[in-house]
Amino acid sequence: MAAPKKILIIEDEPHIVMGLRDALEFEGFGVISAGKGKEGVALARAETPDAVILDLMLPDVNGYAVCEELRRQSPFVPIIMLTARSQETDKIRGLDAGADDYVTKPFSVNELIARMRAIFRRASRPSGAPELVEIGAAKVSFTAHTLTADGTEHALSFYEVELLRLLVERAGQPVSRDEILQKIWGLEAGPTNRTVDNFIVKLRKKIEKHPDKPAHILTVYGFGYKLALETAAS
Question: Which of 11, 20, 78, 199 sits CB 3.0–4.6 Å from 158 for a disulfide?
Fold first, then answer.
């Protein structure tokens, strides 16, 4: 029997840790936890968790710094950030620090569990995308989780890789936001859910020569996105 997936919770509020631990263990996950940022980084180094749930507001180090260190330590581990802040700029900053996703407090434990299931379901599903792909001048390695453009190599987070995989698998075809949210994040679409759009912005910055006038990751207005591997002129 395979060992259960190990989830690291870095959170200083004991009642939140207890609630998450109970729910995750009920679903068959293993759980380890830390109440401070430095402790969480050390525990991640020692225990190599399969995913991390990280609070933004910690007593010793802010969650952005912890996230950056976790990402340097383990480029591929999925990181979901918990935040009491609802401003879009805070969420974008978290994604830029290396978080794969964010959940705003108060949050639904069932929603968080759905995201965890989606992470591991997606990671274990055979992909129809090749392991190496060129998108215009950018070269993507799905094995190494890297994207190289203009001589610069960028690390890709778990969700960036999975979003690109899906778009590559369906290259030239529109893919709806609803389908992306359901397949990759395990979420239902909602009128205020900007998760997909935020990740598209991140990927465009790495792939497109002019992110504000994309040639490859195209918006299909009112529906979703479409990937063009080559530009019309190429």
Answer: 78
DSSP state letter for 4: P
Taking phi over 0 as left and psi of -120 to 50 as alpha, with beta for the rest, 216 belongs to: alpha
Round to whole Å and give the CA distance between 12 and 151: 41
pLDDT digits (tens, 9 = 90+) for 190-227: 545 677 888 899 899 999 999 999 999 999 998 999 99
CA atoms within 13 A on the CB side of 104: 11
Residue 59 DSSP symbol: S
Sign of the alpha-carbon dihedral angle for 20, 106, 199, 227: positive
CA dist 208 and 200 (Å) reads: 11
Q: How far apart are CA 98 and CA 112, in angstroms?
A: 18
**Considering the entire predicted model, what is its pTM?**
0.72
From the list 30, 23, 18, the residue with the least C-alpha distance to 109 is 23
- Domains defined along the chain, listed by start: 6-124 (3.40.50.2300), 132-227 (1.10.10.10)
- Compute the CA torsion angle 93, 225, 193, 156 (nearest 10 deg): -30
Q: What is the pLDDT of residues 98-144, one digit of tens each?
A: 787 778 877 888 888 887 887 777 665 555 567 889 999 999 998 88
What sign does the CA torsion over 82, 85, 91, 97 have?
negative
